[in-house]
Design goal:
By secondary structure, this protein is an alpha+beta fold. It has helices spanning 45-52, 70-78, 88-112, 118-136, 143-170, 178-198, 203-206, 209-224, 238-267, 272-301, 337-344, 384-387, and strands spanning 2-6, 11-19, 23-32, 53-60, 230-235, 307-312, 319-330, 353-363, 374-382, 394-401, 404-411, 414-424, 429-438, 443-449. β12 and β13 (429-438) form a beta hairpin.
Length: 450
């Protein structure tokens, strides 16, 4: 299952759990309204790839709110009396990373329900308190590791507070369930008080939500670094492009040289006429050479991957997976039947520009960190390049309110459709579609379509 949500004002984040299977394939089809006239000339594929697509893979686990490294962390923490364990940072980061992901996943599941379930909230509160208590009662003696422990505890406390306040603010509590809302707020206040008692943050940071958010974002990166794969990128076809350039130049130059010799035989001695003919032929060569090379290059690379990535474990530096990526514009008629069906809805938008991104990967689970057999992939789609070509104008819409005519200032909005097809190694296929409503400077709404 794929989850898509707004990441910031101009981008969305797509997240998928890759499971324990080695091979995976993801196809993304972005349908752009035809009135924007987006094509490879306005937004080249490579430009969109380099500026609008960011891919990251991390370790993952299916165990909800039960970190796999829990026992390992606790045992190592107790061994910090005399010497520092070099793997302590990795252990505590795994612990925090697993808890954070599980807490966010549980919060999303609760918000997706149309009714509040008392037992699920109670279980979430109990497990959260247990995991945080286990972390806080095992503080290392080594000063450098203790500072790292403080950063982890600081972030987990803040994230717990944020998730519980989110649930308290947005869940549809009934009149007889207000005690659950009060309990969530009480736990959030307890975490806030815990950070103040430990003096994790200065008063200036506590009083400024922007500074607090930026600091926690940096601490989140500190947690995710040991479990995020390092990615090395190689652009494919570079050598092939050089050989094509040389071959086209050789063929064109041979043809021009032949015509020059023929004109020399017809004209005779080197005269003004011969110089004019030579200048014309060299001009024709420059005019056609680049076009011929570009068309041949597009023909040779059509349907072939454009980038190869190698994923490395940042702890062991071992290669743990590889992936190939494609990106190109496609027409509606060239799309696979299942994608056309998913997009079609009530009326097919045949005038749309369709940008296709494909990601094929093969992982090596036997080289993963101990206790992990799955990975999570996050893809951020930055829509800023598309927003730049949108019309920022507004217009007036009239409506009646009783007997009064009211003028509403309405901004121009566009609807992008994103269709994702996830194919696993066993052949199972999942297709999903989202509507992304945007204007010229921000994403207004993201919703999953049936």
């Amino acid at each position: 299952m794929i989850h898509l949500a707004r990441y910031d004002e101009q981008s969305v984040r797509l997240t998928r759990e890759l499971g324990d299977k080695a091979e995976h394939r993801l196809d993304l089809y972005l349908f752009i309204p035809g009135e924007l006239n987006v094509d490879s000339q306005l937004i080249p594929e490579q430009e969109f790839y380099l500026q609008g697509i960011y891919v990251r893979r991390t370790y993952s686990s299916s165990a909800q709110l039960s970190p796999l490294v829990q026992s390992r962390l606790i045992s190592r923490s107790r061994g910090q009396q005399d010497r520092a364990d070099p793997k302590y940072r990795l252990s505590v980061s795994l612990y925090a990373y697993q808890y954070t992901n599980a807490l966010e996943s549980a919060a999303r599941a609760l918000l997706a329900n149309s009714e509040v379930k008392r037992d699920e909230i109670g279980e979430l509160l109990e497990l959260s308190a247990t995991i945080l208590r286990r972390l806080r009662r095992n503080v290392p003696k080594d000063e450098s590791l203790s500072r790292y422990h403080v950063n982890i505890d600081n972030y987990l406390s803040w994230q717990t507070e944020q998730q519980f306040l989110l649930l308290a603010a947005r869940m549809p509590f009934a009149d007889d369930q207000q005690d659950l809302k009060d309990l969530l707020i009480k736990v959030a206040r307890r975490e806030h008080k815990h950070r103040e008692e430990q003096e994790y943050n200065s008063k200036a940071v506590n009083d400024d939500s922007t500074r607090m958010s930026n600091k926690m974002r940096l601490l989140r990166r500190l947690i995710e670094y040991p479990v995020t794969f390092k990615r090395r990128t190689q652009e494919l076809g570079v050598g092939e492009q050089r050989w094509l350039k040389a071959a086209v130049a050789a063929v064109v130059m041979t043809f021009v040289s032949f015509l020059l010799l023929e004109s020399r035989l017809l004209v005779g001695d080197i005269t003004a006429m011969f110089l004019v003919i030579a200048a014309f032929l060299y001009g024709v060569r420059e005019f056609f050479r680049d076009d011929i090379r570009q068309k041949l290059w597009l023909w040779l690379r059509k349907g072939r991957p454009k980038w190869r990535h190698t994923y490395l474990d940042v702890n062991s530096e071992q290669t743990i997976g590889r992936s190939l990526e494609w990106i190109d514009y496609q027409s509606f008629d060239d799309l696979p039947e299942d994608i056309r069906t998913a997009r079609q809805g009530n009326t097919p938008q045949r005038g749309e520009s369709i940008l296709h991104y494909r990601n094929d990967s093969k992982m090596l689970p036997t080289r993963f960190l101990s206790g992990y057999a799955q990975t999570r992939e996050s893809i951020i789609l930055d829509l800023d390049l598309i927003m730049r070509v949108m019309n920022p104008s507004t217009h007036i819409v009239f409506r009646l309110d009783n007997q009064e005519i009211i003028e509403d200032q309405v901004e121009k909005r566009y609807v992008l459709n994103l269709v994702a097809r996830d194919v696993e190694g066993d052949g199972s296929v999942v297709i999903q579609r989202w509507r992304i409503v945007i204007n010229h400077n921000r994403i207004v709404e993201v919703e999953l379509s049936a």
